[in-house]
Amino acid sequence: MKIYRRTPGITVNLRRATDEDLLAMELRYPEDRLLPTMGVQESWVLTVGERRDAEAIGFIEYFIRDSELIITGLWVSPDKRGNGYGTMMIELIEATERPDIIRAIVTPHSTSFYTKRGFAPDMGHCVVARISDSLK
């Protein structure tokens, strides 16, 4: 488990997703087509709080190819959006994997999230990329 403290008293945990985590998110948000699929990529869930059984409020899926990190999915619970959790997940994965380049497969809805974080169009309209902070 990776632990990231954003402010005193609040602990944000990013840990590998289990089938139970993903099923719980699917049941809670059945209309959301962006939920993870437990494919060949790494799947991680975000929880807030000290409890080990804390509810997952977000997920990130990615895979590594050479020195590139490719994000294939990023999602935060609708009632938790706007609090920096998506950015935290990217930062934690980037600090752990230390890629040269981060690419994200995006939808028209998610493009602005990534461009606000320094990503730029790359390889067409459905992929954005930026040089990793570890190389700056």
What's this entry about, in short?
By secondary structure, the protein is of the alpha+beta class. It has helices at residues 19-28, 85-97, 111-115, and strands at residues 2-7, 10-16, 42-48, 56-65, 68-76, 101-105, 120-121, 127-131.
- Biggest sheet layout: 8 strands, mixed
Individual helix count: 3
> What class do helices, strands and sheet pairing give?
alpha+beta
The side-by-side strand order for the widest beta sheet comes to: 1-2-3-4-5-6-8-7
Overall pLDDT score: 76
Q: Quick one: CATH class? A: Alpha Beta
Shape field: globular
Radius of gyration: 14 Å
Looking at the structure, the CATH topology is Aminopeptidase
- The total domain count is 1
CATH superfamily: Gcn5-related N-acetyltransferase (GNAT)
Give me the strand/helix succession.
EEHEEEHEHEE
Distance between the termini: 27 Å
Name the CATH architecture.
3-Layer(aba) Sandwich
